[in-house]
């Protein structure tokens, strides 16, 4: 088993499949009355969050607690970081406290890689800058497999701001490993061809959502990062949602069995209309539940065995 | 653990027909001891406990036309030796439809050795329901208990040395039915 989960590229087919299978067993346990398992008793998991997050932090916290690990939540606000403490000094503090795993979210791409060289425990990337978010990719893959029964050969469109999306990067890497075919869709300013090629040569790129939809098994809508709107990647929000937003008319172009995914948080009315987000094809709520199972699987497989 | 030389000192303890007879006998004993297996659930411990539980249920059905619910109970997440080995893959936990609350649960495993697997199974059971009683059925008891645990139904007692290993093969998983004793007999 690998020691750290810094990138979806850390996972080969066998390891990724093991994580998804383990997540399946964890999901089965979620249905019972006593959800707590004694597996990681005595282990300490630190959630080190330099960026705001609700679902990912809560999801990791729930996952660690269900496995009986001790959880320490650290957010940059209200800590010594606001007094100017560096990532390295914070890491050394955590090291001294004996953290068995550090779950890190940071605005700087590559922060988990640096952290891994400073601490003895496992490092789990919970989103670093515009780089990667591997546990999101795992829960997405798990959701696709649960709904559609397989991953090999699936055709997946990832739509929107690929340029800034760590979710998209991790998904392309993991889905390619698992044998799915990914098409990146969005305005040319947000879907650079060189990024697609660098991630995986098999990745296709399209600027026309309507022509892509009829061939897809999965459509994953990315959040339009409104905080970057002023950089004029597209002329206006209305134009974006007219060309790349998923509404009911577009959803009908999908094959009967296809599912609609979104990593959240959503801009309802922007990249996805409320009718689509709340339709039976949407897996958005399932993704949140699956997130806990997938993260339990990762924590168990990284921490459960011999160190 | 079997050493590379182990095969030179291996001995077949139960062949195919012996194994079938032993399973038949346990099925009869269960019927006898539980007065017709009413309110009883068989839970196999993965990996080889699961097909054994299914066989027992099939035999009980053949003898008395009684359907005993069968399920599986994975104990990996409850083991006390997780940190001594590389991470283990999880097995399946599948409880039969009616659950286990208020029923007599018979845990089924292939080999009873230290008793630690059964301890873990009792912990796991505690988290999935409250059976009225719990019994244990094993194909082989090889001794060397480290915990105060005993089986209610034993297919075969095999005196062993700690350094030896007992290998149960089942048709469903290994392609043949056999129990083998291997290892150094120094």
UniProtKB/TrEMBL annotation, chain A:
<dbReference type="Pfam" id="PF02729">
    <property type="entry name" value="OTCace_N"/>
</dbReference>
<dbReference type="InterPro" id="IPR006132">
    <property type="entry name" value="Asp/Orn_carbamoyltranf_P-bd"/>
</dbReference>
<comment type="subunit">
    <text>Heterododecamer (2C3:3R2) of six catalytic PyrB chains organized as two trimers (C3), and six regulatory PyrI chains organized as three dimers (R2).</text>
</comment>
<keyword id="KW-0808">Transferase</keyword>
<feature type="binding site">
    <location>
        <position position="166"/>
    </location>
    <ligand>
        <name>L-aspartate</name>
    </ligand>
</feature>
<keyword id="KW-0665">Pyrimidine biosynthesis</keyword>
<feature type="binding site">
    <location>
        <position position="265"/>
    </location>
    <ligand>
        <name>carbamoyl phosphate</name>
    </ligand>
</feature>
<feature type="binding site">
    <location>
        <position position="55"/>
    </location>
    <ligand>
        <name>carbamoyl phosphate</name>
    </ligand>
</feature>
<feature type="binding site">
    <location>
        <position position="83"/>
    </location>
    <ligand>
        <name>L-aspartate</name>
    </ligand>
</feature>
<feature type="binding site">
    <location>
        <position position="56"/>
    </location>
    <ligand>
        <name>carbamoyl phosphate</name>
    </ligand>
</feature>
<dbReference type="InterPro" id="IPR036901">
    <property type="entry name" value="Asp/Orn_carbamoylTrfase_sf"/>
</dbReference>
<feature type="binding site">
    <location>
        <position position="133"/>
    </location>
    <ligand>
        <name>carbamoyl phosphate</name>
    </ligand>
</feature>
<feature type="binding site">
    <location>
        <position position="264"/>
    </location>
    <ligand>
        <name>carbamoyl phosphate</name>
    </ligand>
</feature>
<feature type="binding site">
    <location>
        <position position="223"/>
    </location>
    <ligand>
        <name>L-aspartate</name>
    </ligand>
</feature>
<feature type="domain" description="Aspartate/ornithine carbamoyltransferase Asp/Orn-binding">
    <location>
        <begin position="153"/>
        <end position="302"/>
    </location>
</feature>
<dbReference type="GO" id="GO:0006520">
    <property type="term" value="P:amino acid metabolic process"/>
</dbReference>
<comment type="function">
    <text>Catalyzes the condensation of carbamoyl phosphate and aspartate to form carbamoyl aspartate and inorganic phosphate, the committed step in the de novo pyrimidine nucleotide biosynthesis pathway.</text>
</comment>
<dbReference type="GO" id="GO:0004070">
    <property type="term" value="F:aspartate carbamoyltransferase activity"/>
</dbReference>
<feature type="binding site">
    <location>
        <position position="105"/>
    </location>
    <ligand>
        <name>carbamoyl phosphate</name>
    </ligand>
</feature>
<dbReference type="InterPro" id="IPR006130">
    <property type="entry name" value="Asp/Orn_carbamoylTrfase"/>
</dbReference>
<comment type="pathway">
    <text>Pyrimidine metabolism; UMP biosynthesis via de novo pathway; (S)-dihydroorotate from bicarbonate: step 2/3.</text>
</comment>
<feature type="binding site">
    <location>
        <position position="136"/>
    </location>
    <ligand>
        <name>carbamoyl phosphate</name>
    </ligand>
</feature>
TrEMBL record, chain B:
<keyword id="KW-0808">Transferase</keyword>
<comment type="function">
    <text>Also displays a weak uracil phosphoribosyltransferase activity which is not physiologically significant.</text>
</comment>
<protein>
    <recommendedName>
        <fullName>Bifunctional protein PyrR</fullName>
        <ecNumber>2.4.2.9</ecNumber>
    </recommendedName>
</protein>
<keyword id="KW-0328">Glycosyltransferase</keyword>
<keyword id="KW-0805">Transcription regulation</keyword>
<dbReference type="InterPro" id="IPR023050">
    <property type="entry name" value="PyrR"/>
</dbReference>
<comment type="function">
    <text>Regulates the transcription of the pyrimidine nucleotide (pyr) operon in response to exogenous pyrimidines.</text>
</comment>
<dbReference type="GO" id="GO:0004845">
    <property type="term" value="F:uracil phosphoribosyltransferase activity"/>
</dbReference>
<comment type="similarity">
    <text>Belongs to the purine/pyrimidine phosphoribosyltransferase family. PyrR subfamily.</text>
</comment>
<feature type="domain" description="Phosphoribosyltransferase">
    <location>
        <begin position="20"/>
        <end position="170"/>
    </location>
</feature>
<dbReference type="GO" id="GO:0006355">
    <property type="term" value="P:regulation of DNA-templated transcription"/>
</dbReference>
<feature type="short sequence motif" description="PRPP-binding">
    <location>
        <begin position="105"/>
        <end position="117"/>
    </location>
</feature>
<keyword id="KW-0804">Transcription</keyword>
<dbReference type="Pfam" id="PF00156">
    <property type="entry name" value="Pribosyltran"/>
</dbReference>
<dbReference type="InterPro" id="IPR050137">
    <property type="entry name" value="PyrR_bifunctional"/>
</dbReference>
<dbReference type="InterPro" id="IPR029057">
    <property type="entry name" value="PRTase-like"/>
</dbReference>
<dbReference type="InterPro" id="IPR000836">
    <property type="entry name" value="PRTase_dom"/>
</dbReference>
């Amino acid at each position: 088993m690998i020691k750290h989960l810094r990138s979806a590229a850390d996972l080969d087919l066998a390891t990724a499949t093991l994580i998804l299978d383990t997540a399946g067993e964890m999901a089965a346990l979620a249905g019972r009355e006593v959800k707590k398992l004694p597996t990681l008793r005595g282990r300490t998991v630190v959630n080190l969050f330099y960026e705001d997050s609700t679902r990912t932090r809560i999801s990791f916290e729930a996952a660690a607690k269900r496995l009986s690990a001790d959880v320490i939540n650290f957010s940059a606000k209200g800590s010594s970081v606001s007094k100017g403490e560096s990532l390295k000094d914070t890491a050394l503090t955590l090291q001294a406290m004996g953290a068995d795993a550090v779950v890190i979210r940071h605005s700087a791409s590559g922060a988990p890689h640096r952290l891994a060289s400073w601490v003895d425990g496992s490092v789990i990337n919970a989103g670093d800058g515009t780089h990667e978010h591997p546990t999101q990719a795992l829960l997405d893959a798990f959701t696709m497999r649960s709904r559609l029964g397989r991953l090999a050969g699936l055709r997946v469109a990832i739509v929107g701001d690929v340029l800034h999306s760590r979710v998209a990067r991790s998904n392309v890497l993991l889905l390619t490993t698992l044998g799915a075919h990914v098409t990146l869709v969005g305005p040319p300013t947000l879907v650079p061809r060189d990024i697609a090629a660098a991630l995986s040569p098999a990745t296709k790129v399209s600027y026309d959502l309507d022509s892509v939809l009829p061939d897809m098994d999965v459509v994953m809508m990315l959040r339009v990062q409104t905080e970057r709107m002023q950089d004029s990647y597209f002329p206006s929000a209305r134009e974006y949602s007219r060309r790349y937003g998923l509404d009911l008319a577009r959803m009908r172009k999908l094959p009967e069995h296809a599912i609609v995914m979104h990593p959240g948080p959503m801009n309802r009315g922007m990249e996805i209309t409320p009718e689509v987000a709340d339709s039976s094809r949407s897996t958005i709520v399932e993704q949140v539940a699956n997130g806990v199972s997938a993260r339990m699987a990762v924590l168990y497989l990284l921490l459960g065995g011999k160190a | 653990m079997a050493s590379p030389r182990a095969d030179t000192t291996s001995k077949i303890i139960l062949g195919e027909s012996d194994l079938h007879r032993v399973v038949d006998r346990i099925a009869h004993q269960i019927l006898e001891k539980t007065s017709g297996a009413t309110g009883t659930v068989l839970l196999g411990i993965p990996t080889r406990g699961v097909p054994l539980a299914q066989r027992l249920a099939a035999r009980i059905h053949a003898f008395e036309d009684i359907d005993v619910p069968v399920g599986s109970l994975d104990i990996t997440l409850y083991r006390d030796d997780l940190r001594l080995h590389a991470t283990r893959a999880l097995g399946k936990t599948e409880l039969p439809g009616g659950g286990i609350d208020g029923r007599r649960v018979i845990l089924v495993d292939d080999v009873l050795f230290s008793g630690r697997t059964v301890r873990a199974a009792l912990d796991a059971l505690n988290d999935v329901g409250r059976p009225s009683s719990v019994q244990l059925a094993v194909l082989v008891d090889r001794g060397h208990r480290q915990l105060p645990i005993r089986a209610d139904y034993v297919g075969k007692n095999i005196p062993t040395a700690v350094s030896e290993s007992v290998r149960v093969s089942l048709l469903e998983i290994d392609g043949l039915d056999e129990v083998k004793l291997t290892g150094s007999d120094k």
